[in-house]
Design goal:
By secondary structure, the protein is α/β, with parallel strands linked by helices. The protein is built from 32 helices and 33 strands. The protein folds into four domains: 21-89, no CATH class; 97-192 and 418-595, Rossmann fold; 197-404 and 621-627, Dimethylsulfoxide Reductase, domain 2 (3-Layer(aba) Sandwich), CATH 3.40.228.10; 643-756, Barwin-like endoglucanases. It has a six-stranded mixed beta sheet, sandwiched between helices. The chain has a six-stranded mixed barrel with strand order 25-32-29-31-30-33. The longest helix has 16 residues, at 26-41. Bound molecules: ligand MGD (2 copies) and molybdenum atom. One ligand MGD is lined by residues 165-167, 191, 194-195, 369, 406-407, 464-468, 471, 491-494, 496, 511, 513-514, 553, 647-648, 655-657, 726, 729-730, 733, 747. The site of molybdenum atom has 4 residues, from loops.
Length: 759
């Protein structure tokens, strides 16, 4: 079978601009899916793979964490972008030892992320010796010995950092944190630190559980769904099906976003012929908010609710909450004029929103990175919680909080203990089960890991998936930090920038992905994942592995642990590698909610984890009640002549994996170096549509951060705001610009000036 050869690196990033799309999905999405799948996998493999996505006997889509629901599944239970994620992994292209012999590391560092990703699946473990300019093949045994050697040379286990990205299964994640803690550190940063950490922080404090409180059925039953700071048409396309269903049952939808995102305007559901023909208008009200204005918006809505007779659910507030009086006093002082400045909205729009809120018995608020990646992100999400608590909209069918997670198992990884600040109860359980004393002091999150590497306080970096170098903020600082390490190790499926920007020595450990069949000494294995709504279910790959040399993630961790911990470890690593059921038996005894895990995981469709606020209106917080909070309202202030830049995803990428150079729904084609600016702002700044500029960050440390050569696109974003794609713009996000409490990089509020280019 012949697949299309990868084009050479399209270094000439030459974006062309057309009108933005007005609807999402529909037939163009189907056509696109078929083409991408065919190019990467060929026809037979495409069918075989795509028909198993998200089926009860199949594998969990490696795309987003949107749930599948418990009822009957559609035969095509995936979306265009899920299919791209699958095709990217199940591709027939291969990165072999010959590839590495041909391309020196210095050359790989010059390549675009797009080109690197297009090269295919990595087939053999590879080693870059100190002073070497090429990766060379290495045996698994030798690779683990190198890691053991470097770890043994540290003066403390806290000089090593162990990162996790959110595709790692529950079984692998549990083993990984077990190994790392037995080794002696809590340095377990993960992609969540850059993602929904703000949600976790805010929800744990206010509701007692750092996860969403709604199921898919709740969404279907809601009267009002607020979608704030999220672009589901691209990042969670199957969510549009749920919104369409809710809409058909009478729900109203408010979209709060600086951009008019296509999916929230009109959705053409390819699973539904009528919808496909006509499309469904999803949002009833579009609040085109200024970046960072959400806390002010919700605070004013809360004041208006409090001042409307009978609007507050007084019984719920009395019986289940704490801190109402203090919060109400703060809310009453909310000011219209300041809110209009902070949000850029007009009075009539907010009044219309209030009408929809007051008319709703059952309200859900969904959000993603548009709320979590700001300095005041945690305060913003707490205000969302205040909003729902006022209406008694938590722990009731059709209502609640819905932080929509990113990576397909990012939520499960945290449940399994991937966390730099583990709860004492979790460590107690680990100690009791495995008979060693886990470290109790907190470890490094992502930002602190970068500082530690930069300052020489951490010397070994090991990543269980992901692309740390490209996903992290302040690219220049992060790259220099990683280059200082003695050893960097990447457990990966595909090539990315983190393989090219390395420590003195480097290893690439190639692993099985979700779609690959996993056979161990104990027979064929499956793994489990947890979706955004707390459903845990099995995932079984069905393709022959990309190469016979690959090891699964659990096998890699188990062998690494044996090499590093040696005879001193009483943990049965070999047994865990042989049969993942043995890992699940331990998870069942350590992690609450996983009792009888093996039996329940084997059930088609899996099981739902308990969630006290949702299930029993019980709030395991410090006060034993749901907490109202009263933080001062904040919003970004932008100096004259500057814009507030958000760094976001195009329709053709999965985080740092770039599938292609188009952003169909926004009308951008053939390039990614574009900056979307409102025509009036552009006019004021003297920037013609199509002009080329450098984006120059302005941060209080006075360091110049520059992203060169972006094409200005006149686009209907909120005034004073701009948007450009990540990871090209990560160079502009200062390492120290993070959210209060959660320490999440403030990737959605970067003050920039646009400098016209001389050339
Ligand atoms: N196809 C695909 N799917 C993905 C991913 C992917 O890259 N590709 N990534 C996965 C991951 S890890 C994650 S975390 C999710 C991310 O999912 P999203 O959060 O939807 O991703 P972003 O592209 O960062 O989009 C942020 C949205 O918030 C809006 N926004 C920005 N600032 C503000 C603000 O201040 N207020 C409000 N109200 N809105 C704002 C932006 O205009 C944009 O619509 O998607 C997951 N799914
Ligand atoms: N400026 C800016 N920065 C951001 C964001 C933003 O919105 N703006 N978003 C942030 C968010 S929300 C997130 S989640 C992070 C994402 O950060 P990461 O999770 O670190 O990055 P990804 O691009 O998802 O990682 C892709 C790589 O994972 C590897 N991989 C894929 N599947 C598997 C697997 O099954 N096993 C293993 N071992 N490896 C695998 C492949 O080698 C692939 O190249 O980026 C963050 N960075
Ligand atoms: Mo994410």
């Amino acid at each position: 079978m012949v697949t299309k050869p990868p084009a050479d690196d399209p270094a000439q990033d030459a974006p062309t601009i057309g009108p933005p799309g007005r609807s999402a999905a529909g037939l163009p999405a189907v056509a696109h899916t078929v083409r991408v799948a065919h190019e990467q996998m060929g026809a037979a493999r495409s069918l075989r793979t795509l028909l198993k996505v998200n089926q009860k006997d199949g594998f969990d889509c490696p795309g987003c964490a949107w749930p599948e629901g418990s009822g009957k599944r559609h035969r095509a239970e995936f979306c265009e972008n899920g299919a791209k994620a699958v095709a990217e992994e199940a591709t027939l292209r291969r990165v072999t030892p010959e590839f590495f012999a041909e391309h020196p590391v210095a050359e790989l560092a010059e390549r675009s992320g797009y080109w690197l990703g297009q090269q295919g699946r990595i087939t053999e473990p590879m080693y870059l010796p100190e002073g070497g300019d090429h990766y060379t093949p290495v045996s698994w045994e030798r690779a683990f010995a190198i890691v053991a050697e470097e770890l043994a040379g540290l003066s403390s286990p806290d000089e090593a950092v162990f990162y996790t990205s959110g595709r790692t299964s529950n079984e692998a994640a549990f083993l990984f944190q077990l190994f790392v803690r037995e080794f002696g550190t809590n340095n377990l940063p993960d992609c969540s630190n850059m993602c929904h950490e703000s949600s976790g922080s805010a929800l744990t404090e206010t509701l007692g559980v750092g996860k969403g409180s709604v199921s898919l059925e709740d969404l279907h039953q809601a009267d009002l769904i607020v979608v704030a700071g999220q672009n589901p048409g691209t990042n969670h396309p199957r969510m549009l099906i749920a919104l369409e269903k809710a809409k058909a049952a009478g729900a109203r939808i408010i979209s709060v976003n600086p951009l008019p995102e296509a999916g929230l305007e009109r959705f053409k559901n390819p699973q539904n012929p009528l919808s496909l023909l006509r499309g469904t208008q999803l949002a009833d009200l579009f609040l085109q908010i200024r970046i960072g204005g959400d806390q002010a918006l919700f605070r004013l809505l809360n004041k208006l609710i409090i001042e409307t007779g009978g609007a507050v659910d007084e019984e719920f507030v009395r019986d289940h909450t704490h801190g109402f009086e203090e919060f109400a006093a703060a809310a009453r002082s909310a000011d219209w004029a300041e809110t209009l400045t902070a949000t850029g909205l007009d009075r009539a729009e907010i009044e219309r929103a209030l009408e929809l809120v007051l008319a709703s018995e059952r309200t859900v608020v969904c959000w993603a990175m548009g709320l979590t990646q700001h300095k005041h992100a945690v305060a913003t999400i707490r205000e969302v919680v205040n909003f729902l608590l006022l209406r008694g909209a938590v722990g009731r069918p059709g209502a609640g909080v819905c932080p929509v997670r990113g990576h397909s198992n990012v939520q499960g990884d945290r449940t399994m203990g991937i966390f730099e600040r583990p709860a004492p109860a979790f460590l107690d359980a680990l100690e009791k089960e495995f008979g060693f004393a886990p470290p109790r002091h907190h470890g490094f999150d992502v930002v602190r890991s970068i500082r530690a590497l930069r300052d020489g306080d951490a010397k070994v970096f090991l990543a269980m998936g992901g692309n740390f170098v490209a996903a992290s903020p302040d690219t220049a600082v992060t790259e220099a930090a990683l280059r200082r390490a003695r050893l960097t190790v990447q457990v990966s499926t595909k090539l990315n920038r983190s393989h090219a920007v390395t420590g003195r020595r480097a290893l690439i450990l190639p692993t099985l992905g979700r779609t690959d069949r996993d056979v161990q000494a104990g027979g064929r294995q499956f793994v489990t994942v947890e979706d955004s709504m707390g459903m845990v279910h099995a995932s079984r790959g069905n393709l022959p592995p990309a190469s016979p040399s690959l090891l699964s993630e659990p096998a890699i961790v188990a062998r690494l642990a044996r090499a590093v911990l040696g005879a001193g470890s009483r943990t049965p690593w070999e047994e865990f590698e042989r049969d993942y059921g043995a890992i699940r038996d331990r998870i069942a005894r350590v992690v609450p909610g996983f009792e009888d895990f093996n039996a329940r995981a084997a059930r088609p469709g899996g099981f739902t984890l308990p969630h006290a606020p949702r299930d029993e209106r019980r709030f395991p917080t410090a006060t034993g009640r749901a907490n109202f909070t009263a933080a001062p309202v904040e919003y970004p202030r932008v100096p004259e002549g500057r814009l507030l830049l958000q760094t976001l995803r195009s329709h053709d990428q999965y985080n740092t994996t770039v599938y292609g150079l188009d952003d169909r729904y926004r009308g951008v084609r053939g390039g990614r170096r574009v900056v979307l600016v409102h025509p009036e702002d552009a006019g004021r700044l003297g920037l013609a549509d199509g002009a080329y500029v450098d984006l120059v960050g302005e941060w209080r440390d006075g360091v110049e951060r520059r992203a060169p050569g972006f094409r200005v696109v006149h686009y209907p974003t909120a005034r004073g705001c701009a948007a450009a794609y990540y990871p090209e713009t990560n160079v502009l996000v200062p390492l120290d610009s993070t959210a209060d409490t959660s320490n999440t990089p403030a990737s959605k509020s970067v003050v920039v000036r646009l400098e016209p280019r001389g050339d």
